[in-house]
Structures are given as C-alpha cells and as structure tokens.
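Predict structure. Chain length: 238.
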Amino acid sequence: MQTVEFSHFPLLSGDWVLDLGCGEGRHVISAYVAADVHSVGVDLSLDDLATTREKFSDFEEPDNTAKSFSLSAASALALPFADDTFDKVICSEVLEHIPDYRAALREIERVLKPGGLFCASVPRRWPEKICWALSDGYYNTPGGHLRIFRSDELRGEIEGLGFDQYHRHWAHALHAPFWWLQCLFWKNRDSNWLVRQYHRLLVWDIMEQPAITRTAEKLMNPVMGKSVVMYFRKEASL
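Prediction complete.
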C-alpha cells in the first residue's frame, strides 16, 4: 500500500533517498524498484527492518551497480547521517507516533540537501477523530498515535523550517472504513466477521488493482482519504 506518489516526487538516477520510519519497507523498496537510486530505510524496530530485508530479496538487482539498498536502526531524533546527505526524504505515517516530532522535522531538514524534496503523510484529521472516538485502544497502546494533526498547522511548521509545499493530495479512502470497523469491534477485531471480510476486500484491491476499486478510491480520496500527503521542496542555499 504505497502512499507517496512518485509522479509528484520524481526520483532521479543517482538520488539518495531516505525513508524515515520505513516500517516493513513499502516505500524504501518501492523507491529502489522505481529508479536507479540509493534507497535507505531507517526505523527503530529491528523486527520491522528484518521483515523489510526479507521482502527486499524478491526485488534485489545485484548486477545493477547504479542502485543500492541499505537499512539502519536509528532514532528519528538523531539520524546517523551528515548534513545535506539526501536528495529526497520520505516520512509516511510516522510523525503521529513520535513524542518530539518537531525534533524529527529538524533532523529531516538537516540531512536533506538544499533544493531536495520531502514528502510527509499523516492521518487525516476527521477520519482519525472517528477512530479515537470509537476506541481508546486504537491510540492508547505502546507505539500508537500520540496526536491528531491539523494538516494546515503541520504544513506551517514544516514551511517554517525553510520548505515550500508544492503539492498535496489524500490517500487510502477505502481504508478509512476498515479502521472504523476495527475500532468499533476493537476487542475482537481479529475474529470479527465484518472486519475480516473488509480486510479480504482490501487485500484483493491491493493485489489485483481492479478498475472498480481504483476508480472508487480515486473519487473518494478528496472526501474521506485516511491520509493527507504533502510534498515540499527545501529552499536552496543562497
């Protein structure tokens, strides 16, 4: 389930791309597959990094020396990279989990080259508020969501660090009802029939990409997309 659209976040040959909070690898692997780039994933979870490494084995191009893939366990508050290392930085569905997310944004600004691109996605406010209202367990769990962002306020904070937003869209409208159902039946969500059937629909959509669901989600995203996705360019140095 890819949130970042590379049509709005063009990858150029030779780019160094950081996926901060890469989880199980959806974007760090997608970037590697999409172009001849050096794709780097960072996460705190060793289990997630191990899963990413396993998934990556199906996509590795060992004979292509124009690209590379690497993973690192590190904190978003103290990235193990020099200033101005990366041409592109992705931080998708991560900031809502970090207590000091402003420090993470400052680290992103530090490691991104002047003129580089930054994509941030967070849960959209009103679908997220429904989740919080339906279940305390959704957010009150280790590693859970710590806050509900107002996207315009987050945009202002990022722009205050020297970025300019150049595009915004919404994503994953079909997933919003799935999370509402999970929250509604939180205590038995893994066995609930309705939750399981909706999950089957989402898996079918992801694997088969049928026109009916792809078109439906595209039409629904501006209204009820679960994520807001914002694209920024770091101001070039004078």
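Summary: The domain at 16-124+142-172+223-234 is CATH 3.40.50.150 (Rossmann fold).
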